[in-house]
Give the backbone structure.
Amino acid sequence: MRASRGRGRPWTAVLVLVLAGVLTACSNTPPPPVVTSPVSPSAPLPGETPSQIVAAVDDIVGGYNPHSLADASTVTTALSQLLLPSVFRPDVEGELTLDDSLMTSAEVTSEDPFTVEYRIRPEASWSDGAPIAVEDFSYLAEAMKSQPGVANSAGYELISSIEPGEGGKLVRVIFSKPYPGWKTLFSNLLPAHVFKDAPGGWPAALADNFPAYGGPFAIKKIDTARGEIILERNERYWEKPAAVDRIVLQRSEGPGMVSALRSGSAQFTLGGVSGDTRALLADLGDEVALHAVPQPYVVDVVLRPVGPALADDTVREAIAALIDRNALIEEGTKGGDSADLRASAQVLPPSSDKYAHTIPGSGPPLERDARRAYRLLAEAGYERKAGSWVDEEGRALSLVVASPGQKQPYGRIAEALTEQLIAEGIEATAVQPPARELFGSALAAPVDLDGGAAGEPAPTNGQVGIDIAVIPRAVSVDPATTAASWFSCPAAAQDDAAGDGAGDTEDGKDGGDEGDTGNDSGSSSSSASDSSKSSTAPTGDAGANTPDTGLVVPANPAGFCDPEVQSALDAALTGETPLKQSLAEVEPEVWDQNVSIPLFQLADTLAVGSGASGVTPGPALTGPFSSAVNWTRAPR
């Protein structure tokens, strides 16, 4: 279970749960020296023209934190690969391989307690001269456990302590439970010495720039007004230098991408373009190679059981039955490469070679069923009057549908969903709070389960209650981590779920068409009037559910928690149960609860012209910038 570096090979705010073990481990290590005047990347000699590769991308606006769902974007993924160090990176086959530009080794040294030791190269340092060390590991682990709206945090939550050694270049990580997916941890390390005392802390991290770098490139300029990011070779990088002097990212819409490739002003384009733009790129001829590049995100419609109107399982099932999922997919993909990646499973993304549809084979959410929705709303005590659904007190059924800021395709989908609901007599309002506010406050706000005027759930921090959110769901190369990060209960509530062993259900999945599944239990949803399963945190203490006050702090954007599902999630995450067996229990339960309606996996279209060499789609869920250090200009 050891990964080691070959010699001489050249080469990459609301929830706060501070783990005392991590902090204690770090406190014994003196802070790394900080050079107050960073060395700027060297410019070409006078009269010398720098070699550069220009990429036209669909947007460059930040933030740029690769661990934040609010910042999920193509440019964030690109910059993290160019600027930030990672312990493991996927190879061409998608297998996680030790990044020997940063590490000398990483190995499991104990099974009880489960312990992993990491050794960092002595010369590895940030661009300001501070060493990359144990402090950076501890900072990231603490943030991933304590901050809301982070991507794929489940593995970090198993860390009980981090111990330093060898002057901070040895990192000993001790886990509370075994974690087979440990290689997914500590990607895109951040400079702790800069961030830990920075104004705004984690919520402001990488909002509009990078204060220090640990990769082969450095930022020369970010000009969001002009739509341009210029990166140059990082002269402080200790490993193989980049082959080109400069990479330029330029914002461009679909037609502009086509023009840039045709004229040669850009060497390649990358973005979530429409089917029409893709056709125009294809018309450029054989000199332009087109590729679909799946992103590590699935667009998800989250129906929140801690939302003001959807705590009632019957109402939530009715709303799910009113959603025209096919229409939302068409609106979101616009015929682009994402259209071929319809997501009809709760955990595995369509780009996975192990993907299979698990969506119930008939009825919602596969097919809209208005008659069923009307019946369920009547069962829940609603009656349609003057075109609106009202309860016995005359209160209209009103929903708030949120999407992150101006980010697309989430905004378009949220607007289309709102129109669908309004057409069926539901008072729906689309809101677009800034992405960091949505994930950091609105979806993470503590909820008083009966704090509303009519006894409905209500957030306690003055936020508007969100009933439905159209948001990105992060996808890890470890499916157990994906599932546990998106559907787990708060940490304290998980203690109550422990001991409820995962069932030995057969998965009954096949790889047929969407909706074609052999899982009988998932062929239709059970009646929402069966309220034996709780969709919110059942027990716990501060940071989870507080029974005495009725307050719930959501552990995931939906605020979903089911003890039976939690047992299966834990068993998969720790390797106690094979993933296939755990998913056979998780998938039908989550579909039945009507809390998550996945639409499609995001995919960019990569168009590479003849002016660049070495630009490829890259490993799965990674993209082309992973090989940027080897890119060269080619004669046009």
